[in-house]
Fold this protein.
Amino acid sequence: MKLNILYFAATRDTVGMDGETRDFPAGVATVADVLAALEREGEQYRAAFAEPSCLRFALDQVFVGIDAPVRDGAELGIFPPVTGG
Amino acid sequence: MIRTSVQAEAFDAAAELAALGGDGDAGALVSFTGLVRGEPGSTLELQHYPGMTERQLDAIAGEAAERFAVLRGRVIHRYGLLHPGDAIVFVAVASPHRGDAFDAARFLMDWLKTKAPFWKRETRPDGTAHWVEAQAADNEAAALWD
């Protein structure tokens, strides 16, 4: 399953890139599964995702919870709580 | 109809207001302009999520138009490099009566603060920089409209 992942703000700084397109193995079904799979890939992901309660997620540009199901080809945004206004 | 914009450029609040007044249908025109706070010499960088930001602003504007009697409205949010005193966000609502105009303007700001994907990074005059933390008070203000 392929996902286009975008990182913003402090999450972007810690991961070290704006975004990436990645293939995930079968069994990666939710946002939480994606985080766990990425955390196995490197220290920068473990540092960025250390406190999931301090992260927000958007699937195809709509806010979702960490347990939301992901589908092939989706755009997943991972970022801290927003601070606009 | 509440028009929304995400832009790097400065905006002209007076011109925006003048465009919303109408020809007698509105009895109230309420606006809010948010300014960058900070010590002289500091800067504020606004990052956003292109695409999602526009969608969220339109969704928030649509919700305001559902909840309140809104004749016309305007939401502008800037991104990029800003300085203390710069206008960063503008919300204005024209309504038949003041209650809806006040409420809709406040609602737009409260939801925008917690639902529009913007992030602020402050650089102090000595060069140290940090991402601004989300405020619990902003979540509480937004939750009052739930």
